[in-house]
Structure formats: structure tokens, C-alpha cells
């Protein structure tokens, strides 16, 4: 570099440093850039050595597939992993508890709605005093919305029911299978044809007659004539005392 003339050197000596920087920005800028470069070199040699280089998916678009997603795993916070998992477990557990409570309430409501009410349960069993029914008479009681026939049979009626050749009947059944005590015949009073209520002490066999389509039942309630396919149904019943029957 050629030496400056004497007049220029004098002028430079007289000017303050700030004024000189303002007059020659390229000189100041060069110095700043130099410092910045030195700083980058120092940091690159130290802390940046461990960080993997960022690969931009757009750097060479001709050589790489455009669907490549950059891996930011190195920048992920390792500190919050345990906390995040705890929150996830808590949320899943809370949702499970809420779902179980909702399901329980739904099922419980459904079962309560479907269960029988108190008045229905009261009708589930009927207790009858048999002492009030004289021999040779019928009584009709209501049980679960259906009529139930109670017949206090005479000795002759019992004999007739037992002597019948039941094997040849359309619904073969001995009289002993239809009664618990021979003098008491208890049956649901619904015709097995189409559901009419037969009339007692009538018909060709001295038992019951259904006027709807002409079915005849004998003194044991067995279908003997007409369209009825089955014998009159015998309900569940018991004798808790000698003169008492409980139906149901
Ligand atoms: S309903 Fe009794 S005979 Fe038809």
C-alpha cells in the first residue's frame, strides 16, 4: 500500500475517531464482520459440534423426494417426556372411570324401569281360603290378569277323572299329573284354542265348554272334543296349610 500524503495524515490525526467512523462506514463494517466471523468460528468449534446438521427438504429438490419430513428429534425437549406420559395416563384413567360410571347408571336405570312394579309383584301370588268353597262348586279367581278355575271335586268326579283312558287323548295326561290333592283341581281358565274363557259345569264331558268354537274339556280339564289342541294349563301352586292354597 502506498504511503498517504502528509496533508492527509495530518487531517486524519486531527479528526475524532467517531467522525472518522461516520465518514468511512465500510471500514467500521469490515471490523464488525470480522468480529462476527470469529464468534461463529468459536461457537461452531464448541457447542455446535454436538448438534446434527439440519437437512432442509428443499435444498436439492431434484435429488430428494418432496415428501421427506425433516427430523426435529434432536431439538425435542427430553425433560417433559415423563410429565407428558403422566398426563396421558391420567386422562385415559379419568375417561375410563367416567365411561364406567355412565354405563353403570344407564344399565341401572334400564333394569329399574324393566323390573316389575309393586302392584304387579303383589299380584304375583294369590292366596285362597279353600274352606269357603263347598264340594262340587267352582270358584274363579284372578291371578296375573288371568282367570284361574278352582274346582272342589266330588268323589264321583275324582273317580271319573282317574278312570278315563288318557293314553288315547289328544293331549295324553293322567289325572294324577294334573292335581296335587285329588279333590282340588286348579287350572288357568283360558281355552287353549284361541284364548276364550270356558264355561264351567257344562259340555259333553261334565267339565268345561268353550262356546267360541265348541271345545269340550272333561272334569280334569283335558281337551276331549272341538278344536282345542291342549289341556287347560295347570299353574304353579302349593298348599301351605290344609285349607289354604297359594297360586304362583
Ligand atoms: S277359543 Fe275356545 S274353542 Fe276356540
From TrEMBL:
Gene3D superfamilies: Rieske [2Fe-2S] iron-sulphur domain, Ubiquinol cytochrome reductase, transmembrane domain. It holds the Pfam family Rieske. It is an enzyme of class 7 (translocase). InterPro entries: bc1_Rieske_TM_sf (IPR037008), Rieske_2Fe-2S (IPR017941), Rieske_2Fe-2S_sf (IPR036922), Rieske_Fe-S_prot (IPR014349), Rieske_Fe-S_prot_C (IPR005805), Rieske_TM (IPR004192), Ubiquinol_cyt_c_Rdtase_Fe-S-su (IPR006317). Its cofactor is [2Fe-2S] cluster. Its main location: mitochondrion. The Rieske protein is a high potential 2Fe-2S protein. Belongs to the Rieske iron-sulfur protein family. PANTHER family: CYTOCHROME B-C1 COMPLEX SUBUNIT RIESKE, MITOCHONDRIAL. This is Cytochrome b-c1 complex subunit Rieske, mitochondrial. The lineage of its organism: Eukaryota, Fungi, Dikarya, Ascomycota, Pezizomycotina.
